[in-house]
Each structure stands twice: as C-alpha cells, then as structure tokens.
Design goal:
Elements: H1 12-28, H2 41-48, H3 52-64, E1 68-71, E2 75-78, H4 83-94, H5 97-118, H6 121-139, H7 143-160, H8 164-185, H9 195-206, H10 210-225
Antiparallel strand pairs: 1-2
Pfam families: FCD, GntR
Protein name: FadR family transcriptional regulator
Keywords: DNA-binding, Transcription, Transcription regulation
Length: 226
C-alpha cells in the first residue's frame, strides 16, 4: 500500500496557527494575565502536542505582535495592555451615551444569542451567581458593588459565547459602562430596576433559546437608555 494515498500531510503552518489560536484564546479569556509567565517550551510542547520549532515560531509571532515579551533568563511573559487599547478605553469614556448604547445593542444582543447556543453548565452557574449577587447588592443599597456585579454578569455571558474576541471587546467596553451605569443609577428619578429582564435573559440562555436571549437583551438596553 502506498502511504501517500492514505495520509494527509499536516503543514507546519497549520500547527503554528493552532498554537497561536490556543495561546491567544487563553490570554483573551484571562487564563494568562498581563505580567504572567507562560509555561516553559517543554510544557507547551507536551500540552499542545507539537514540536519545539512550532512553539518558538508561534511565540515569535506573538512577541512581534506585542502580545508577549521574552525576558532573557526568566521566560516568556504576557505584556501589559497596549497604547491602542488604552486609547479605545479613553474614547469609550468620553463617547456620547447614545452611541455607546447602540454598540451595546449590537454587541450584547448577538453575544447573548451565542451564549444560549454554546453555554455549559459551568457557564450557567457563573451567570446565575452574578445575577443573584447584583440583586442582593441592589436590595442592600450597595450601588458601587452592584454595578460591578452587573458588569460581571454580562462578562460571564460573553465568556459563555466561547468567542475570545467578544470577551476582549466587552472587557474594553466595561470601563465605559461602569461610568455610564454609575451616573444613571444616581439619577433616582429615571433609574429603572431591570432585575426582572436580567432574570429572563438568564432563563433564555439556560433554555438555549438564542432568539429570545437576543430580544431580551435588546429590551434591557432599551430600558437603560430610556
């Protein structure tokens, strides 16, 4: 038998891409935070099932892209946030509330739909934890921690989408949302308790009803903006 007829050659480029995707995903999801050291080359080789040259090429690309840095004699580390990310953070903080809400509608709506399709039981537990936490804090009048719990609720939904880029985008958004929520909750005359719609969003994600999760998220953004 001619082995060339039964096996498909695996290109080295594909292996490098595989390693790149895995490393970027772990960094985006916060498994490795800025300042953290990555596992050693032998550890990465074992975990990812590839050779040393593949690991080195992937790390070289990520170093060139500004995501990692190699410290001689110490190892490879995740770099701090880049200036471009900080600029986005500043832009969101000064952006018109209407524009922020329009982007929230697009981002959070589709994120909730993806989460409904891809969530795990562990994701549901995390989302439910922050749902209960935000309700408890609101009832206690602890508005500062309530805002943090509310953002954590939506970030948990983003993580349930299993899309690392979505997690990055929502993380960047969270700083601007924190400022927006802080100002809106102090406006007692216009503040609306949206706990009920948050509970329905959780239920839709639990029931894997993507369309309803999206619609309820649109409703929630509308409540925040009205």
């Amino acid at each position: 038998m001619n082995l060339d007829d039964t096996f498909t050659r695996v290109e080295r480029r594909q292996l490098v891409d595989h390693v790149l995707i895995q490393l970027q995903k772990h960094i985006s999801l916060g498994h490795y935070k800025p300042g953290d050291r990555l596992p050693t080359e032998p550890e990465l080789m074992k975990q990812l099932g590839v050779g040393r040259s593949t690991i080195r090429e992937a790390i070289r690309i990520l170093v060139h892209g500004g995501l990692l840095e190699v410290r001689q004699g110490a190892g490879t580390f995740v770099k701090a946030r880049q200036v471009s990310e900080e600029t986005l953070h500043q832009r969101l903080r000064r952006e018109d509330a209407r524009n922020v809400q329009e982007v929230r509608r697009m981002l959070e709506g589709e994120t909730a739909a993806l989460a409904a399709l891809r969530r795990t039981e562990e994701d549901l537990e995390r989302i439910k934890h922050y749902l209960d936490r935000r309700s408890e804090l609101l009832s206690a009048g602890n508005y500062v921690d309530y805002i943090d719990a509310d953002i954590a609720f939506h970030l948990a939904i983003a993580e349930a989408s299993k899309n690392a880029l979505v997690v990055d985008l929502y993380s960047s958004f969270s700083a601007a949302l924190h400022d927006y929520f802080s100002s809106s909750i102090l406006d007692v005359d216009h503040f609306k308790d949206n706990t009920a719609v948050h509970e329905k969003i959780y239920q839709a994600i639990r029931d894997q009803d993507a369309n309803r999760a999206r619609e309820l998220t649109f409703e929630n953004v509308g409540l925040c903006h009205s």
